[in-house]
Specification:
The chain is α+β, with helices and mostly antiparallel strands. Helix content is 30%, strand content 24%. It contains ten helices and 19 strands. The longest helix is centred in the N-terminal third of the chain and has 21 residues. The protein is elongated, with a radius of gyration of 24 Å. The N terminus is likely disordered.
């Protein structure tokens, strides 16, 4: 509820009403907390066949209207990150409240606002065009903020196994920088982590010749890795980055040379690399040094890119018509579930709210942006699925 009833009335909209219902569900990953049931009820009333597809502890919803192609899919997630220390919030993170035109609550921007905007856009579009061409679907998971092993990835695999293919996908990730629609994502960098153990021999610091210090052994390798210019980027991606995020060694005593070192590093890489070529390059560096090590890898996702085409053009046009701005095409940010949808053959764009408060205390979204985002989604539907889009 709002601290100012007049403000609530001023901004009253179906998007706001649905978003508030979703925010009140404390859907900390992987708990959906009933959000998908709310959405399924709304979608069933619009003629969608709603299929709940749980894998492990993860709730997934696949809702489809129509059987013909092409298939336009809206995708997103109901799970949110934990609120953290709630004493740092100005209000209950799971009780939506409006202050100064902003709706506060965990998941407002990432990404329940997009889910609410998708549902209301579909209501208007189907109400006006019940015999639209092609098919429409929603793919909703509760595992985007978590390991992402049993969410969108598993649903896409199950769809492929039965011959269902997504042609176009609009993800509701919070893509905007400072103004709604100023940026859309047309791809994401890959993310590959190395989990390293360097083995040495523990000993007394006064007798280094009787020990083997893994810190000393690893230092020149790390220096080499840091000095490499991995690539220059390309037209759509920035240069590949290498960052060490964790190093641990020692037993807590100042006079003991440690017997092992553990480290973790991460690459964010462009389409100029694959996970295999990056691994080969790193192992080649290690091969130039005398070092006893074990290196394991974790892939969060390969890079993907949607080349400019019908979907990117329709999204940019929808933003221009609704907000009056020219959007920027970007591949920045972290990973998203687009990394699972794109390899199956879909064009993917990401369009959602301003991202400046996501995962933070007092996460919020502008109330006035909710109907505008919904209108953008509706316009994309018209431009993609109508033979003669409305002007």
């Amino acid at each position: 509820m709002s601290t100012n009833p007049a403000e609530t009335a001023q901004h009253d909209s179906p998007e706001l009403e649905l978003l508030e219902r979703l925010i009140r569900r404390p859907s900390v990953t992987p708990d959906d907390a009933g959000c998908q049931e709310i959405m399924a009820t709304e979608l069933a009333a619009l003629g969608f066949d709603c299929e709940h597809m749980p894998f492990g502890d993860v709730a997934n919803l696949w809702a489809r209207r129509g059987t013909d192609g092409p298939l336009l899919c809206f995708a997103g997630h109901t799970d949110v990150v934990p609120p953290g220390d709630e004493s740092g919030w100005d209000s209950d993170p799971f009780e939506p409240i409006i202050r100064d035109g902003m709706l506060y609550g965990r998941g407002t921007a990432d990404m329940k606002a997009s889910l609410a905007a998708m549902i209301t856009a579909l209501k208007r579009f189907i109400g006006r065009h019940p015999e639209h061409g092609g098919s429409i679907a929603l793919l909703i998971t509760s595992d985007e903020e978590g390991p992402a092993d049993d969410g969108t990835k598993k649903v896409v695999e199950a769809l492929a196994a039965r011959g269902e293919k997504i042609d176009w996908c609009v993800l509701g990730e919070p893509s905007s920088h400072s103004t709604l629609g100023d940026t859309i994502r047309i791809g994401r960098r890959g993310s590959l982590s190395g989990i390293l153990e360097v083995r040495g021999k523990q000993g007394h610091v006064a007798y280094p010749h009787l020990a083997s210090n893994p810190i000393r052994t690893f230092a020149p390798v790390l220096s080499r890795l840091n000095d490499i210019r991995w690539d220059e980027g390309n037209a759509h991606f920035p240069p590949t980055s290498f960052e060490v995020v964790e190093i641990e060694a020692g037993i807590g005593a100042p006079n003991v040379i440690p017997g092992s070192l553990r480290a973790r590093f991460n690459f964010r890489y462009s389409t100029q690399w694959s996970k295999e070529t990056l691994k080969e390059e790193v192992h080649a560096v290690f091969g130039d040094f005398e070092i006893d090590f074990e290196l394991n890898w974790r892939l969060s996702g390969e890079p993907f890119l949607t080349e400019p085409g019908k979907l990117t053009a329709a999204t940019a046009r929808a933003i221009e018509e609704v907000a009056g701005i020219d959007t920027e095409l970007s591949t920045g940010g972290g990973t998203s579930d687009g990394r699972f949808i794109s390899p199956a053959g879909a064009d993917v764009v990401e369009l959602g709210p301003v991202s400046t408060s996501i995962h933070q205390v007092n996460e919020h979204v502008a109330v006035a942006d909710l109907p505008r985002l919904s209108k953008m989604y509706e316009r994309i539907l018209e431009l993609m699925l109508l033979d003669e889009p409305e002007t």
